[in-house]
Amino acid sequence: MLDEHFARFRAHRNNVHRYRSLLETRLSDIERQFIERRLSEESSALEALTSQTFPLTLAMPSKPSFAAKSGAAP
Question: I need a labelling partner for 37 at 20 to 30 A (CA). Which of 15, 54, 69, 70 fits?
């Protein structure tokens, strides 16, 4: 089962890379809209698969507290 998730992960990642590369080329407006939509869909699918396969995330604090900066004991 995990191998299947990794295969899908690689496929979505490769598609995202391919679409980003295509956006760097010369495209008509319609082509660009299509690629941007597909890139958004692939990115969303990759995000969903990643959160499903690797549910544990560690959040870093956004700003250190003043006490931590000054070395003072809390």
Answer: 54
